[in-house]
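User: Working on a comparison across species. This one is Galactosyl transferase GMA12/MNN10 family protein from Naegleria lovaniensis. Can you predict its structure so I can line it up against the others?
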Amino acid sequence: MSIKVTPFKRWSHFRCFLMTLILFFFFSILFSTLYLTLKRFRNTLELSNNTPVIFRKGTIKSNVALVSFYTSDYHDIGSISTINKLFYAYKHGYDMIVYQKPFYKKSIWIKPAWNKIPMVEAQLENYEWIIWIDSDAIIMRHELTLEDIIEISKKADWRKKDHEIDLIISYDINAGINSGIFFMRNTEWSRNVLKQVQTSWKYIPYSLHWYAEQTPFAMEIKYGLDEHVRVTYKRVLNAYLKDYSEGTTYIMHLAGCPKQKPKYCSGIMHEFYERWQRNNVTSVSDRELLRRAEKDFETLEKQ
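Assistant: Here's the predicted structure for Galactosyl transferase GMA12/MNN10 family protein from Naegleria lovaniensis:
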């Protein structure tokens, strides 16, 4: 007895075949696009030769260095921030390292903020501690030293970890931590963190993410739970405008503001720069240091 195939069954079989074919082509295109995207992304990660300008108060190299990226894209905010950091470095005898060119080739596949990772990595082996400060941040309390921040971070981190400190950073409501300002010690753990954030395939989707390197950085240090990390108060280390507290805030950070409202943010930065001068540039030696910082910045701009 033969089985009769109805038109309805024929249509059902054909429809299944058609759907399978469509899905096959869809996923083929999807994976091909993903592969080409990753390949193009990797091609942009060609680190260029990038020699920074190094400033120091005397002739003796310090074991601590501030590292920053000066760019005119931030209007006069970058210049104010750089002069402020030069003054701080001279006051405490730290080296000040300023990059003027990005490491990564300009590309739609990666945000400029990623440049801080190779910049810190390139200098970490030369110092005991690296202090990274974004070019839209200003140090408000120049009496505080690295040692002071280490002690503050020990008190702030409620988990009371026993491991020696390799990274000091602050929390952020958006990405978990804020990598705009951090203190990193020259250890194997630190070097591995920077390497993983920069090269691990699992972080590639974040190349165009709004928070750029910040989320991969947070994931790599377990959002501050790693025993090598101390997470300190945001209002101290990395205060936004709403977090600022006179006499408490160490670094004021206008994160993302310069690109959104350049004139408004420039006005705020000038206001805090004048406030910083009133509170920190109070002696003859301070004024001499400030003049030197301003002069060195003028030299930097001409290069």
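For your comparison, note: The CA atoms of residues 6 and 72 lie 74 Å apart.

User: Helpful, thanks.
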